[in-house]
């Protein structure tokens, strides 16, 4: 299943926040960003650049349009709530998008708005009808039903899905399953042993440390999943262990990823990759390694 999501927020009365911020996501990864302060579209994934200049120009045009519409709607909604002269902060948020299952071609779209953090209005795609979640949304509902609901229905069921397919082709490099490389890294003999997993796609991975075949939770610190520049991901699990302890027991890093069978890497001195050679014993706790094991 692939998905495209738009997250747009208009605010008023909130210092240091642009009046409009728009973020586009593909498969839950941010691909583009726009805010009304810079008034420009920023590509956030290398592969999106392949879509070309025209794509960026269209995004800018569309986001500038959204900025204007959001400001107008926010004003209108504030009037409905009798908050016109209000000095406090208010927000209008939209979340919309679609999903596409590449095996059976099933699609699903949605569009919903929140005002000041609560549901406000959403599109019922089946009936091509906006549904007000609060009485103050009635006036917008009346305004949008008709042309606006037909436009969104067409967009979410056709154009949005077309975009997913286009993104999926452009991002092909990053959309194929990629097998991770697992390495054991250590800065010096007193620092934690890092089980470093990189180069995988999609981003879900399980890394754990076992001691004599039993899952270890204490003395293990699992990091966040981070993005690599090529659309793949990396993650690490650190094991705090002293050399005399690990030489008496068997420690194993276990990595599970969709791309293949689990990898078990038993901790031995020969398997550890380190950068201490040549630089002398380092007291720094940070690790600097090349990431491709030979
Ligand atoms: C706004 O003001 C009008 C007129 O005073 C009142 O009828 C309405 O209930 C108010 N709406 C809200 C949401 O307070
Ligand atoms: C990770 O572990 C959870 C819980 O055991 C499991 O549901 C999930 O499928 C695993 N993920 C992978 C990528 O193996």
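^ Assign residues to that structure.
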């Amino acid at each position: 299943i692939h998905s495209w999501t738009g997250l747009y927020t208009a605010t008023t009365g909130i210092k240091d926040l642009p009046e409009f911020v728009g973020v586009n996501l593909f498969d839950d990864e941010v691909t583009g960003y726009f805010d009304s302060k810079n008034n420009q579209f920023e590509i956030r994934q290398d592969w999106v650049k392949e879509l070309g200049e025209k794509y960026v120009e269209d995004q800018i045009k569309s986001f500038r349009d959204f900025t204007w519409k959001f400001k107008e709607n926010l004003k209108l909604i504030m009037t409905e709530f009798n908050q016109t002269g209000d000095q406090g902060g208010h927000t209008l948020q939209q979340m919309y998008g679609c999903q596409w299952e590449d095996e059976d071609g099933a699609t699903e779209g949605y569009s919903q708005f929140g005002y000041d953090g609560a549901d406000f209005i959403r599109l019922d795609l089946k009936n091509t009808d906006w549904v007000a979640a609060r009485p103050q949304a009635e006036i917008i509902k009346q305004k949008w039903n008709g042309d606006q609901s037909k436009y969104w229905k067409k967009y979410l069921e056709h154009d949005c899905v077309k975009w997913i397919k286009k993104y999926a082709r452009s991002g092909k490099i990053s959309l194929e399953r990629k097998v991770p490389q697992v390495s054991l890294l250590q800065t010096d003999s007193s620092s934690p042993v890092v089980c470093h997993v990189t180069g995988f796609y999609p981003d879900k991975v399980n890394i754990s440390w076992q001691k004599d075949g039993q899952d270890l939770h204490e003395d293990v610190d699992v990091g966040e999943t981070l993005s690599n520049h090529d659309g793949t991901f990396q993650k690490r699990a650190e094991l705090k262990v002293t050399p005399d302890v690990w030489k008496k027991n068997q420690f194993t890093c276990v990595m599970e990823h969709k791309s293949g069978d689990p990898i078990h890497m038993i901790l031995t001195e020969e398997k550890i990759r380190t950068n201490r050679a040549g630089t002398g014993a380092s007291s720094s706790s940070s690790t600097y390694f090349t990431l491709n094991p030979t």
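The chain has two domains: 2-170, 181-283.
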